[in-house]
């Protein structure tokens, strides 16, 4: 049986159920949200409770959000949908104050374009946040070496190798399943999928709030 956090219920009540990526792009300062593709474990849950939570918090903080993916195709579940995504290759990173990558429960192979984008974001000195499975994208890009990171599993856990390439995390320091900030990189070890199906606390709220603090003008 799924477990749903109190904040998740608030997201439902806020009406963030199905939306267009352009609906949240009206602010002067904008964030780029990159959606991972491939087979999604529970797209309705991820769209509603992860993307929805991030959208509510970012909008409340005064930021617009554009949503992108490598293909730019709509992301759909049985009842939830994200429409009008931008194609990642057409995005200009200079237009955004930071990048956030939800986990989405995606069982995809990290694409070369996403890896290149992660490197470019940090080269431009912009904050980047990644949740659970999306942390593997940062690892694949090599930006976690010499840094602390959060993840649901320790790379030394035998279960880890069944889902992720352990060699990508070499040289990085595992710091638990919570939320960890190391410079411009913010990682969260869990997501709504891990809470609903494994009973491990969802850190989407904390991850997003930490990201907001990093992108707010000082």
What does this structure look like?
The chain has 218 residues and is an alpha/beta fold. The chain has one domain: Rossmann fold (3-Layer(aba) Sandwich). The protein contains 6 helices and 12 strands. The chain has a 7-stranded mixed beta sheet with strand order 6-3-2-7-8-12-11, sandwiched between helices. A 3-stranded mixed beta sheet has the order 1-5-4, with helices on one face. Strand 4 and strand 5 form a beta hairpin. Helix 2 packs parallel to helix 6. The N terminus is likely disordered.
Distance between the termini: 43 Å
Helix content: 25-40%
Q: State the low-pLDDT regions, or none.
A: 1-18
| Backbone shape | globular
For the secondary structure, the number of strands is 12
Radius of gyration: 16 Å
CATH superfamily: Class I glutamine amidotransferase (GATase) domain
Itemize the secondary structure elements and their pairings:
Blueprint: H1 6-14, E1 19-20, E2 30-34, H2 43-60, E3 64-69, E4 75-76, E5 81-83, E6 86-87, E7 98-101, H3 112-123, E8 128-131, H4 135-140, E9 148-149, E10 173-174, E11 179-182, E12 185-188, H5 192-198, H6 204-215
Parallel strand pairs: 1-5, 2-3, 2-7, 3-6, 7-8, 8-12, 9-10
Antiparallel strand pairs: 4-5, 11-12
Helix pairs in contact: 1-2, 2-6
